[in-house]
UniProtKB/TrEMBL annotation:
Domain of life per record: Bacteria
SMART domains from the UniProt entry: HATPase_c, REC
Name listed for the protein in its UniProt record: Hybrid sensor histidine kinase/response regulator
Keywords: Kinase, Phosphoprotein, Transferase
Length: 687
């Protein structure tokens, strides 16, 4: 009699017979997929020269042999084969969780390949056999792992306690031997980087560490890739000294970016030999994020402050210019009317009135100069040129880039050192020059080069060069006139005039020049560098040893002024006093005339487009030490460089007192009387 329900029951499947063909025919495929899943589960690195499949292949070969020879007894025998694998993983610094992930990966691979081989069907007997087989192997490996761990803890209890402490601290520690091999890395190093460091520990090649840095996309704060040679321990090994404050950003494979601060300290033996280096890893992500936010807020605040300061000073100078222009126009109107009357008929009263009006104009200019000197409170100090230029570029950057065709700035900073100035006003000076370049280049934009370096004369040199067309000579002459009437120029010329006076008060000079080649122009700022105390004492000692000059009566006078009317009138007045007078309208022409014929005295205009009066005085003093030299200027010279003032014998302010000038030129020995005339060893007071 046949029982009906038994007719449809499939025969039982022998799991060994079902699984063995897969393992015999595709062992490499099993091993390859097992290694791939292991690498994905534990972030294991596939390093050149290190085969992850070798230990796994040995385990699979033993499993195939046992299944073929012993059948189901492999459930009891294969775990004993796997037992040493747990001890091996402990020596490779695997965690217990990593070992569990490894056998879980094997279970998934076997079921996946069996199902794919059998039309996506896995019999219950086969699935149970695989789970039991892998589970027993995992339990055996874990027991071996735990036994080794317990043995190590008993044998090296102090080391185990120390490693436990290092596991829970926030700072990662890595030990590097003298040959560059990484001998130890605490667990926090792996946590901070997001990848295990076991593949790096014990290797003598930097390839393993380079692979880790590449996997986490390590980079410098500026964005450049972070290389093994950038690690602090490499520099500490080379220089045998501590290295601190190296920053590195990483992207963890599991997600998230971290900012790490790295430091390295060399360790020495008792005999003084280098034993190795301890490198630390500290998480500074929160501090870095706060610093970025603070820097951004500070930069925005400084930009707003710079704009507000620029607007306030421009408005104040505009009000000053309006008032000064009104007063000067009144005086000029009186002068024009008096000259008209004088042309119609000669009357001494008209001459007296003209002289009185000129005196009023001179008083107004003096009051404006006095206001310019005391218009705000300066805090002089030693200002680093390059640092201040960088701040100015950061402030004015948005202004230069906001148009459709921006002005690009190329800094070429040569670290000339420090100058004696007000830091805020110096920064504003650079900003004003760059804004003037933007107005000059217009809507088409252009390229500006900001260069700093030390000049051969020992001065700090700041050049702001543009790519625009060269200036005409007349335009260069009127560049720094504060009340220029050119269209669109009053504000720019006013700012440049204020900037030039600011530089002069610091003992320097601001000029403009065309570049060679017929394309481009440059603003040039020269400022004396801060001297050391010993240099100042040596300079003072050298001046004290200079004997007073003996002067002979003056007959031949050279008048140097780029204004033809001023030069001609000065020559006529001195000619009527009996002097032999020649006129030069530029510094270069004056030097050539001096070479052709030596003069007894020179009256030098302070401001000229090519060479300033101070530059001409410096050259003339080298060629004719006994000559009388005087600066004639309408500017205030109280802030002028002492070295420049020592070059000349007197300074005369415009409008000039002809009587005082005649007394100066008519002296027969080194003058010592006050009133604008003084020897070169003293700073002459304005006449």
């Amino acid at each position: 009699m046949v029982i009906p329900f038994l007719q449809n029951t499939p025969p039982p499947v022998d799991p060994v017979a079902a699984l063995l063909p897969l393992l015999e025919e595709e062992p490499e495929r099993v091993v390859r997929l097992w290694a791939k899943r292991l690498r994905a589960e534990t972030y294991e690195l596939d390093l050149p020269g290190r085969d992850l499949r070798t230990p796994l292949r040995a385990l699979m070969n033993e499993l195939v042999r046992l299944l073929r020879d012993r059948g189901r007894d492999a459930l009891l025998l294969w775990p004993e084969v796997v037992r040493p694998h747990g001890a091996r993983r402990y020596s490779q610094r695997f965690e217990a969780e990593d070992l569990a992930r490894e056998f879980k990966a094997l279970e998934e691979v076997l079921i996946y390949l069996y199902a794919r081989r059998n039309g996506q069907r896995v019999e219950a007997e086969v699935a149970s056999f695989i789970v039991e087989l892998v589970g027993e192997a995992h339990a055996s490996a874990q027991a071996s792992y735990a036994r080794v761990l317990k043995t190590e803890e008993v044998r090296f209890r102090e080391a185990a306690v120390m490693e436990s402490v290092l596991h829970h601290v926030d700072v990662g520690i890595m030990l590097v031997e003298v040959d560059g091999a990484v001998s130890f890395a605490s667990p926090p190093v792996s946590r901070l980087l997001g990848v295990p460091m076991r593949s790096v520990v014990g290797t003598r090649s930097s390839m393993a560490l380079a692979t880790v840095l590449s996997q986490v996309n390590a980079r410098h704060p500026g964005g450049a890739p972070f290389k093994v040679l950038d690690m602090p321990f490499t520099r500490a090994l080379r220089e045998r000294s501590s290295v601190h404050g190296v920053w590195m950003g990483v992207e963890r494979p599991g997600g998230g970016e971290v900012s790490l601060e790295l430091s390295a300290t060399p360790i020495f033996e008792e005999n003084g030999e280098l034993a190795g280096v301890i490198q630390t890893f500290t998480d500074r992500t929160e501090a870095a994020n706060k610093s970025k936010a603070l820097l951004s807020a500070h930069g925005e605040l400084r930009r707003l402050q710079g704009r507000l300061l620029q607007r306030t000073r421009t408005q104040a100078l505009g009000q000053l210019a309006t008032g000064a222009a009104h007063a000067l126009n009144n005086f000029l109107n009186v002068l024009r009317l008096r000259i008209t009357l004088l042309r119609r008929e000669f009357n001494p009263e008209h001459l007296d009135a003209l002289d009185k009006t000129v005196g009023h104009v001179g008083e107004l200019v003096a009051r404006l100069q006095e206001f310019n000197v005391q218009r705000t409170e300066e805090h002089l100090g030693d200002v680093q040129v390059d640092a201040t230029v960088r701040e100015a570029l950061e402030l004015v950057g948005p202004e230069l880039e906001q148009r459709e065709h921006p002005v690009t700035v190329e800094p070429r900073l040569g670290d000339p050192g420090a100058v004696r100035a007000d830091a805020g006003f110096f920064r504003e000076l650079v900003v004003n020059l760059l804004l003037a370049e933007r107005e000059r280049l217009g809507d088409e934009g252009g390229h500006v080069v900001v260069e700093t370096r030390e000049s051969p004369d020992g001065e700090a040199l700041l050049r702001v060069e543009d790519s625009g067309p060269p200036y005409a000579l007349e335009e260069m002459t009127r560049m720094f006139e504060p009340l220029s009437r050119e269209v669109g120029a009053p504000q720019r010329s006013l700012l440049l005039a204020v900037s030039r006076e600011q530089v002069r008060r610091w003992g320097g000079e601001l000029t403009v020049e065309n570049l060679s080649g017929g394309q481009g122009a440059a603003f040039v700022v020269r400022l004396p560098l801060v001297r050391a105390g010993a240099e100042e004492e040596a300079l003072a000692h050298a001046r004290s040893e200079v004997e007073p000059r003996r002067l002979h009566p003056t007959r031949r006078v050279l008048v140097v002024d780029d204004d033809p009317d001023n030069a001609r009138m000065m020559a006529e007045v001195l000619g009527e006093e009996g002097y032999d007078v020649k006129v030069a309208h530029s510094g270069d022409v004056a030097l050539k005339m001096w070479e052709e014929r030596r003069y007894d005295a020179a009256l030098l205009d302070a401001v000229m487009p090519d060479l300033s009066g101070w530059d001409v005085a410096r050259e003339l003093r080298k060629r004719s030490p006994q000559a009388l030299l005087a600066i004639v200027t309408g500017m205030d010279v109280r802030g002028q460089n002492r070295a420049n003032l020592a070059l000349v014998d007197a300074v005369f302010r415009k409008p000039i007192d002809v009587g005082a000038l005649d007394d100066f030129l008519g002296q027969a020995q080194a003058p010592s009387s006050p009133g604008g005339i003084g020897p070169r060893e003293d700073a002459p007071a304005p006449e």
